[in-house]
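Collaboration report, partner site 2.

Our partner group contributed sequences for two proteins of shared interest, and the home lab folded both. The records are reproduced in the order in which they were received, starting with the first partner submission.
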Amino acid sequence: MKISVIIPVYNAEKYITQAVESAIYLDEVFEVILIEDHSPDNALEVCKKLEEKYVKVRLFQHPDKANHGAGASRNLGIEKATGDYIAFLDADDYYLPNRFDAEKEMFKNPDIDGVYGAIGVHYYTEKAKKQYYHIYQDKLDTVYKKANPKDVCPGQMNLRGSFGLIHLDTLTIKKTALSKMKKMFDVSLRLHQDTEFTTRLSYYLDLYTGINDEAIAMRGIHEDNRITKVETKQIKPSTTKILYWKKLKEWSEQEEKLPREYKIHIIRVYRSFEIANAPLLKKWYLITKYLICDNKTIRSGLYNINFRYSLFK
């Protein structure tokens, strides 16, 4: 196998060496592509030293040398990749030795476009564990059971009940299969752009469950985790997820072949977050707006409201 591992690098000088070295020593890894995203720390110099030290490491920045976010950095990494397969790794996470054990066998089947597995949790300090254990604990994040590829997209949208998630660190994609996608990562999303990507990806590609009963990568938790800080500020889910569901709604409106039940579900959830995120007076305006008399009912998951939406006659 010739796998290109893409690592967006931002403010990760303490962790990037471990991430890189966890990948380059795996036989399946053909190259490690670092996209340095205008870090405020010394990450660029660390990346330059890694490129000098390891022949597998290739370092890039955005053409304007500015900060563009993880999504744009991963898109650039995909453009630069020369391997037959694409894998991702966050700069403060790392792979385990079994990272590509399932892929070596499963990709012998030409019908498989991608494989995903389970990610564990590593706390870099006792302080980080004390602060964030209530969020991550010591559990595996993964799709809970072996899933039919056709169930993965609705599962990612929570249309199939309790399903689990695909973490980018555990995803490996056949590069030629990406041609089925109309776009890669949405660069306008600073949060949830990975989930938005895997949701769309699982609609166009046949993604299979690899190793989901033990970790193949580790999520690194430290005091400076950007996502973790958001999760612990008691910010309402609606304020961070409304944009994610808005993007899915825009995609569903453009994708004519998307099943009708998917479109209804996406609109239902988006409307729920739209109401949840609105000021009090606007909540009632939106509720009134969406209570349109029709024989098609969309039930709001957050507010137990029956929406009659005329779009799906």
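Second partner submission, folded after the first:
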Amino acid sequence: MSSTELPYVPSANVLPKVAPVRVAEGERLRSVQLPGMTLTVRSRPPAREGLPPALCVHGLGGSSQNWSALMELLDADVDCEAVDLPGFGDSPPPDDGDYSVTAHARAVIRYLDASDRGPVHLFGNSLGGAVTTRVAAVRPDLVRTLTLVSPALPEIRIQRTAVPTALLAVPGVVSLFTRFTTGWTAEQRVRGVVTLCYGDPGRVSHEGFRNAVEEMERRLQLSYFWDAMARSARGIVNAYTLGGQHGLWRQAERVLAPTLLVYGGRDQLVRFRMAQKAARTFRDSRLLTLPDAGHVAMMEYPETVAKAFRELLVEVGSDGAPPGASRVSAGGAESASTGS
């Protein structure tokens, strides 16, 4: 499989006069044409040649920008890229309109196959955590290590604060919500997202908040914005109901890659107690718990997440396998806690 890399241009689905996607200093964007989809990929030059490749996958409603802070901190450790899933960031919708977890995983696999960068150090947050778990289970040849930040893996009882997000999956709810929130400004919407996703909203800088507002203003003018949100939310709910070998927890059991699990104690979307279940399920796991973090620890505590990942790199060796042995620890978990 091959891809065609195109000069980066903002998505054709963006209405006129919409600001371009923000690119932080040192980053670049490019468009990659794949069968049935076009993906926007964000990257920054590594500090030196020959570093192992990494790929980051965002969560529901997010984009590759969610990884900018972590990517900058890791530019001396990995050659890092972050992808906008189809219908998010500046990637247009997929041709087939499929936003299931499997379809998002297929997009990641197609990109890795086409770019010939695998095996990579794979990162996923929330929905991206479910997507990358599936990728690691079905294509272990593409994954050196797996780092999951608050992965959206099935819970029997979701938190009350996660209910509104889950309701996006119900047919008709999005149209009702958009009518109800017609008068909401982009700033009000971003403030709500920050309150929901951060353990301490005060950790968001003024510049970061303004950038998020600008991005929200841009996204709200995309004709497919709410459809992508609703269909992806429905995809998560559907994935939660799958049983057998296609169930996400069953696939988590099959992951061979050394796995770093990151959970926040103030996460309002994924229950903190799921951390221990994940640590028992992923066969070669280590667990980082951040009591004061919310749902996006890589944005809220990027230095701490970067440090834990560097420790994982040292542990597994440069080739992605534990040095000196093909060790698999059955459900083992190393736990660290920090409030900073």
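Feedback sent to the partner group on the second submission included the following. Residues 162-177, 321-340 have pLDDT under 50 and may be disordered. DSSP finds twelve helices and ten strands in the chain.
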